Amino acid sequence: xxxxxxxxxxxxxxxxxxxxxxxxxxxxxxxxxxxxxxxxxxxxxxxxxxxxxxxxxxxxxxxxxxxxxxxxxxxxxxxxxxxxxxxxxxxxxxxxxxxxxxxxxxxxxxxxxxxxxxxxxxxxxxxxxxxxxxxxxxxxxxxxxxxxxxxxxxxxxxxxxxxxxxxxxxxxxxxxxxxxxxxxxxxxxxxxxxxxxxxxxxxxxxxxxxxxxxxxxxxxxxxxxxxxxxxxxxxxxxxxxxxxxxxxxxxxxxxxxxxxxxxxxxxxxxxxxxxxxxxxxxxxxxxxxxxxxxxxxxxxxxxxxxxxxxxxxxxxxxxxxxxxxxxxxxxxxxxxxxxxxxxxxxxxxx
Length: 350
What we know:
The protein is mostly helical.
């Protein structure tokens, strides 16, 4: 948070510049927001062009009094370190303030956007893992077979084609683009969702998410599949596997009783990064194409507008989600491989 805060503060085109740029086309509405003193200064300049020219800022064409008033409006009249400490304290209390340009509190914006991002992130990540891990194991066991070659083509296509192209193809084929119109193209639910029965709500929710999640799964399963396959291939050739087979253990017992735990460590370690990627960056273009107002789109728009409260709030939320998923990953590590729990081995007394 500290690093990003100070980097963003030095970026050009901040909220004050954005506001003054809007002021030139919306001076009447903006003057009301700023207050009487700044408004009087702008009005005087408009009424007296000759006198106003002397008072105009050389860079923006606005009086220094107006610029200072705008800086005060956004809290930029205080020192940088003071603003940073205030922001940290507010964020500890989950007080994100109000958006600079949307006229709503940041919590309201996050509340409206979270259901979309959670739906896309959770379901797509879950389906990708449920598809990729069994497929990767099967490819490793049947390495060099026709099945491995055939599924390898699908993996190459999934890795080579961007997610948004799959999304556009699905829209053209199934969302009324040129052929069929089986699925809706806008929003997470249909109008009148609250009046539907539970089964109707579930069906409506699935219909809205079917295409975006399908696009994300097709575009995201390739890497995890190959990671799983290569990890299992690496473990299959080790001595402990040869020893287990020599003892007469069945292939299923060797695979899932010995190889699985060691091979899955590298897969589990990549879960937090994969989940956050799906939750934010991976869903941005999907949200745009399918008109879904999620955190990815909210954060992108905030970055373009230099809407700092929204920018830092989304960053804060994603940081917390990342920390929680890393914790879940560490706990899963210990379940898969008990050797990592050093306290039970006496490592904590070293």
